Amino acid sequence: MNGEIAIVVDEGDQESSHVERAIDRAREHEATLHGLYVIDAWRFGEYSAYGWSVLEREKQEEKGERVLERIREKCEQHGVEFEQETTVGKPNETIRDFVRDNDIDLLVFCESGGEGKPHNSPQMIRDLQRELSVEIETV
């Protein structure tokens, strides 16, 4: 493959099996692993009349950075190149644009398990499969 692999994570995912799977796939294929932490703009009031506080936004960004730094450490232990991004937006649009902008070959998600998280809902994953020409793996 020798390409680009992306993993979408949230604050509880740094110890998830999909993180391990993405690192393994990146190592196997000598690919760069991209970690993407999407802060759901709707969930945190970005589009409300009141917006959201600077403090809340900073807290969410810090959570994302902590998760991605833990994944970076794991990648370093396995000799995998890692790039990270924390961003705010609608998860489906943000992920779609990220995949296109970074020429991602494989996108790895955590199995939703019924939690209904916006970044790994079955409907969103089906929509991405329909819209993108990228392999998508759920673990």
Automatic annotation (TrEMBL):
SUPFAM superfamilies: Adenine nucleotide alpha hydrolases-like. It comes from the Archaea. Pfam families: Usp. Residues 1-109 form the UspA domain. This is Universal stress protein.
